[in-house]
């Protein structure tokens, strides 16, 4: 059970980091195009 919790936690952390990277890319593309 503890292992599953750790897996879920690291997965949600990765998801957060991915979203942050995606937002950075989006805002960067916005700046470049405008």
UniProtKB/TrEMBL annotation:
Protein name, per record: Tellurite resistance TerB
Taxonomic source organism: Streptomyces acidicola
